[in-house]
Protein backbone atom coordinates (compact mmCIF):
# COMPACT_ATOMS: atom_id res chain seq x y z
CA UNK A 1 0.00 0.00 0.00
CA UNK A 2 1.29 3.41 -0.92
CA UNK A 3 0.29 6.87 0.22
CA UNK A 4 -1.86 8.20 -2.58
CA UNK A 5 -0.09 11.50 -3.21
CA UNK A 6 3.39 10.19 -4.04
CA UNK A 7 4.38 10.21 -7.71
CA UNK A 8 6.16 6.95 -8.47
CA UNK A 9 7.91 7.78 -11.73
CA UNK A 10 11.29 9.42 -11.43
CA UNK A 11 13.93 11.32 -13.39
CA UNK A 12 16.05 11.85 -10.29
CA UNK A 13 18.97 9.58 -9.47
CA UNK A 14 18.45 8.00 -6.07
CA UNK A 15 20.88 6.05 -3.90
CA UNK A 16 20.26 2.36 -3.27
CA UNK A 17 17.85 1.72 -0.38
CA UNK A 18 19.10 0.58 3.00
CA UNK A 19 17.67 -2.37 4.94
CA UNK A 20 16.42 -1.36 8.37
CA UNK A 21 17.58 -3.58 11.22
CA UNK A 22 16.88 -1.20 14.10
CA UNK A 23 13.44 0.39 14.52
CA UNK A 24 13.66 4.14 15.12
CA UNK A 25 11.06 6.92 15.49
CA UNK A 26 11.83 8.61 12.16
CA UNK A 27 10.55 5.51 10.38
CA UNK A 28 7.03 5.57 11.82
CA UNK A 29 7.02 9.37 11.76
CA UNK A 30 7.39 9.30 7.95
CA UNK A 31 4.65 6.68 7.55
CA UNK A 32 2.25 8.49 9.90
CA UNK A 33 2.61 11.75 7.98
CA UNK A 34 2.34 10.04 4.60
CA UNK A 35 -0.79 8.03 5.46
CA UNK A 36 -2.75 10.72 7.30
CA UNK A 37 -5.31 11.05 4.49
CA UNK A 38 -5.05 7.51 3.16
CA UNK A 39 -8.48 5.94 2.44
CA UNK A 40 -7.47 2.41 3.44
CA UNK A 41 -6.01 3.41 6.82
CA UNK A 42 -8.96 5.72 7.39
CA UNK A 43 -11.29 2.79 6.72
CA UNK A 44 -9.47 0.63 9.25
CA UNK A 45 -9.05 3.27 11.95
CA UNK A 46 -12.28 5.22 11.42
CA UNK A 47 -12.72 8.25 13.67
CA UNK A 48 -9.53 7.34 15.54
CA UNK A 49 -7.40 8.44 12.58
CA UNK A 50 -4.75 10.97 13.62
CA UNK A 51 -1.04 11.39 13.16
CA UNK A 52 -0.42 10.06 16.68
CA UNK A 53 -2.63 7.01 16.16
CA UNK A 54 -0.92 6.29 12.86
CA UNK A 55 2.48 6.71 14.50
CA UNK A 56 1.52 4.15 17.16
CA UNK A 57 0.20 1.81 14.46
CA UNK A 58 3.33 1.98 12.30
CA UNK A 59 5.70 1.69 15.25
CA UNK A 60 4.00 -1.57 16.16
CA UNK A 61 3.89 -2.69 12.52
CA UNK A 62 7.59 -2.07 11.91
CA UNK A 63 8.63 -3.83 15.10
CA UNK A 64 6.32 -6.76 14.40
CA UNK A 65 7.62 -7.03 10.83
CA UNK A 66 11.24 -7.12 11.94
CA UNK A 67 10.64 -10.01 14.36
CA UNK A 68 8.31 -12.03 12.13
CA UNK A 69 10.34 -12.60 8.98
CA UNK A 70 9.52 -9.42 7.06
CA UNK A 71 11.80 -6.59 5.97
CA UNK A 72 11.84 -2.80 6.08
CA UNK A 73 13.61 -0.68 3.47
CA UNK A 74 14.32 3.05 3.49
CA UNK A 75 16.05 5.72 1.48
CA UNK A 76 19.50 6.51 2.97
CA UNK A 77 18.45 10.13 3.58
CA UNK A 78 15.47 8.99 5.67
CA UNK A 79 12.81 10.40 3.33
CA UNK A 80 10.95 7.19 2.45
CA UNK A 81 10.10 3.87 4.13
CA UNK A 82 8.68 0.64 2.73
CA UNK A 83 7.49 -2.30 4.86
CA UNK A 84 7.47 -5.77 3.27
CA UNK A 85 5.55 -8.43 5.21
CA UNK A 86 6.21 -12.15 4.81
CA UNK A 87 3.03 -13.91 3.64
CA UNK A 88 4.24 -17.30 4.86
CA UNK A 89 3.90 -16.23 8.47
CA UNK A 90 1.41 -18.22 10.55
CA UNK A 91 -1.62 -15.90 10.88
CA UNK A 92 -2.12 -17.16 14.44
CA UNK A 93 1.44 -16.17 15.40
CA UNK A 94 1.55 -13.24 17.79
CA UNK A 95 3.96 -11.12 19.81
CA UNK A 96 3.83 -7.93 21.84
CA UNK A 97 4.06 -5.76 18.71
CA UNK A 98 1.30 -7.53 16.80
CA UNK A 99 -0.86 -7.23 19.91
CA UNK A 100 -0.06 -3.51 19.99
CA UNK A 101 -1.22 -2.84 16.43
CA UNK A 102 -4.35 -4.86 17.14
CA UNK A 103 -4.91 -2.62 20.17
CA UNK A 104 -4.49 0.51 18.04
CA UNK A 105 -7.01 -0.75 15.50
CA UNK A 106 -9.38 -1.97 18.25
CA UNK A 107 -11.62 -5.03 17.65
CA UNK A 108 -13.79 -3.34 15.02
CA UNK A 109 -10.76 -2.11 13.12
CA UNK A 110 -9.19 -5.57 13.21
CA UNK A 111 -12.38 -6.98 11.71
CA UNK A 112 -12.28 -4.35 8.93
CA UNK A 113 -8.60 -5.13 8.33
CA UNK A 114 -9.14 -8.84 7.77
CA UNK A 115 -12.40 -8.25 5.88
CA UNK A 116 -10.57 -6.08 3.38
CA UNK A 117 -8.00 -8.78 2.70
CA UNK A 118 -10.70 -11.44 2.40
CA UNK A 119 -12.51 -9.26 -0.14
CA UNK A 120 -9.38 -9.17 -2.29
CA UNK A 121 -10.10 -12.74 -3.46
CA UNK A 122 -6.41 -13.43 -3.97
CA UNK A 123 -6.60 -17.24 -3.75
CA UNK A 124 -2.95 -17.93 -2.92
CA UNK A 125 -1.99 -21.50 -2.11
CA UNK A 126 0.20 -22.32 0.93
CA UNK A 127 3.31 -22.97 -1.18
CA UNK A 128 2.98 -19.56 -2.84
CA UNK A 129 2.49 -17.85 0.51
CA UNK A 130 5.60 -19.51 1.91
CA UNK A 131 7.82 -17.90 -0.73
CA UNK A 132 6.02 -14.56 -0.99
CA UNK A 133 6.26 -11.06 0.44
CA UNK A 134 3.82 -8.15 0.23
CA UNK A 135 4.92 -4.50 -0.14
CA UNK A 136 2.46 -3.59 2.59
CA UNK A 137 3.14 0.08 3.41
CA UNK A 138 5.19 2.64 1.52
CA UNK A 139 5.39 6.22 2.72
CA UNK A 140 7.32 9.26 1.54
CA UNK A 141 7.69 12.30 3.76
CA UNK A 142 5.31 15.05 2.52
CA UNK A 143 8.24 17.43 1.92
CA UNK A 144 9.83 14.93 -0.48
CA UNK A 145 6.85 13.62 -2.42
CA UNK A 146 6.84 13.93 -6.19
CA UNK A 147 10.59 13.33 -6.45
CA UNK A 148 10.54 9.64 -7.32
CA UNK A 149 11.41 8.20 -3.93
CA UNK A 150 8.50 5.79 -4.00
CA UNK A 151 9.20 4.38 -7.43
CA UNK A 152 12.88 3.83 -6.75
CA UNK A 153 12.24 2.23 -3.36
CA UNK A 154 9.57 -0.11 -4.71
CA UNK A 155 11.53 -1.24 -7.78
CA UNK A 156 14.79 -1.72 -5.88
CA UNK A 157 13.24 -3.73 -3.07
CA UNK A 158 11.17 -5.82 -5.49
CA UNK A 159 14.36 -6.69 -7.35
CA UNK A 160 15.98 -7.59 -4.03
CA UNK A 161 13.34 -10.23 -3.30
CA UNK A 162 13.15 -11.59 -6.84
CA UNK A 163 16.91 -12.06 -6.98
CA UNK A 164 16.54 -14.25 -3.89
CA UNK A 165 13.76 -16.37 -5.38
CA UNK A 166 10.76 -14.75 -3.67
CA UNK A 167 7.53 -13.49 -5.20
CA UNK A 168 5.34 -10.43 -4.69
CA UNK A 169 2.02 -11.83 -5.94
CA UNK A 170 -0.10 -8.77 -5.20
CA UNK A 171 -0.22 -5.16 -4.06
CA UNK A 172 -2.99 -3.52 -2.08
CA UNK A 173 -3.14 0.03 -3.44
CA UNK A 174 -5.02 2.73 -1.57
CA UNK A 175 -6.46 4.55 -4.58
CA UNK A 176 -7.13 4.13 -8.29
CA UNK A 177 -4.47 6.74 -8.97
CA UNK A 178 -1.72 4.88 -7.14
CA UNK A 179 -2.87 1.63 -8.76
CA UNK A 180 -2.42 3.16 -12.21
CA UNK A 181 1.11 4.16 -11.27
CA UNK A 182 2.04 0.69 -10.01
CA UNK A 183 0.91 -1.25 -13.07
CA UNK A 184 3.38 0.07 -15.67
CA UNK A 185 6.13 0.64 -13.11
CA UNK A 186 6.54 -2.90 -11.80
CA UNK A 187 4.38 -5.09 -14.05
CA UNK A 188 1.17 -5.56 -12.06
CA UNK A 189 -2.38 -5.59 -13.42
CA UNK A 190 -5.74 -4.52 -12.00
CA UNK A 191 -7.44 -7.35 -10.07
CA UNK A 192 -10.29 -6.01 -7.91
CA UNK A 193 -11.63 -2.85 -6.32
CA UNK A 194 -13.14 -3.07 -2.83
CA UNK A 195 -15.78 -0.62 -1.59
CA UNK A 196 -16.73 0.03 2.03
CA UNK A 197 -20.39 0.40 0.99
CA UNK A 198 -22.32 -0.39 -2.19
CA UNK A 199 -23.20 3.29 -2.64
CA UNK A 200 -19.56 4.45 -2.57
CA UNK A 201 -18.02 5.75 -5.79
CA UNK A 202 -14.40 5.46 -4.61
CA UNK A 203 -12.86 2.19 -3.36
CA UNK A 204 -11.07 1.81 -0.04
CA UNK A 205 -8.56 -0.48 -1.75
CA UNK A 206 -7.53 -1.59 -5.24
CA UNK A 207 -5.92 -5.00 -5.53
CA UNK A 208 -3.26 -5.59 -8.16
CA UNK A 209 -1.77 -8.91 -9.19
CA UNK A 210 1.57 -9.60 -10.78
CA UNK A 211 1.41 -9.90 -14.55
CA UNK A 212 2.71 -13.23 -15.84
Automatic annotation (TrEMBL):
Organism: Chryseobacterium geocarposphaerae
Domain N-acetyltransferase: 137-182
Protein name: GNAT superfamily N-acetyltransferase
Lineage: Bacteria, Pseudomonadati, Bacteroidota, Flavobacteriia, Flavobacteriales
Domain of life: Bacteria
